[in-house]
């Protein structure tokens, strides 16, 4: 299937590992040029080099703290200058500060930090990208989480902040539709990433169980009985970034069937 991405210019935040890296790699495999950022200059440039080597496409890596408006603006400006224009934004963000905890255990400063890095980063990336996105065609995809729609214990910060992203993206989709720009979010389930490895280890320590038992605690209510791989999420992101032209303002669940809601 030709996704119509050949020659498109894509910006991917938090793209040096996990979903971000998988998305950048898959977009490049489809013929797109990519610019990604990560907290570490070395890691971002290494990720870009791996993409160039694997695909032969232009791939650029920059350091950027998504909690900093200056870093975001610098990243997008450099990407636009190198690529010439921006067609696709994959607005990937990090996770709330610290380990998962009950809803009332997050302190005000942690909420402020999470708000900057998870919600405001998406708003700021969009503001920076839009002037470089031509009229008539554009795609924006923001990975969030299923807990934004179906909250669960110990996920209050992630659920609240990413629910805000989903609502904001829906409003944005309405406002930019007449420019041919499509905006969607991805409701991710449990993904096999470094962050999930930390969560499994924390579960082992707190519950005093083996790794297998800790994993089972997390996948017990997943019908597919396994974690998702980052590239499985990236494939849906690539589809939403493609020439498909009648999907916008949607929150698409990619969670192995874990979400129980039907609307």
Task: List its traits.
263 residues, alpha/beta, Rossmann fold, 8 helices, 7 strands, globular, SDR, SDR_fam
Structural description of this entry:
- Belongs to the short-chain dehydrogenases/reductases (SDR) family.
- This is 3-oxoacyl-[acyl-carrier protein] reductase.
- The chain is an alpha/beta fold and 263 residues long.
- The chain has two domains: 9-191 and 229-254, NAD(P)-binding Rossmann-like Domain (Rossmann fold, 3-Layer(aba) Sandwich), CATH 3.40.50; 192-227, no CATH class.
- It is 45% helix and 14% strand.
- It has eight helices and seven strands; from the N terminus they run βαβαβαβαβαβαααβ.
- It has helices at 18-29, 41-55, 69-83, 108-129, 156-176, 194-207, 211-219, 230-240, and strands at 9-12, 33-38, 59-63, 88-90, 138-143, 181-188, 251-254.
- A seven-stranded parallel β-sheet has the order 3-2-1-4-5-6-7, with helices on both faces.
- The longest helix is centred in the middle third of the chain and has 22 residues, at 108-129.
- It is globular and about 55 Å long.
- The mean pLDDT is 93.
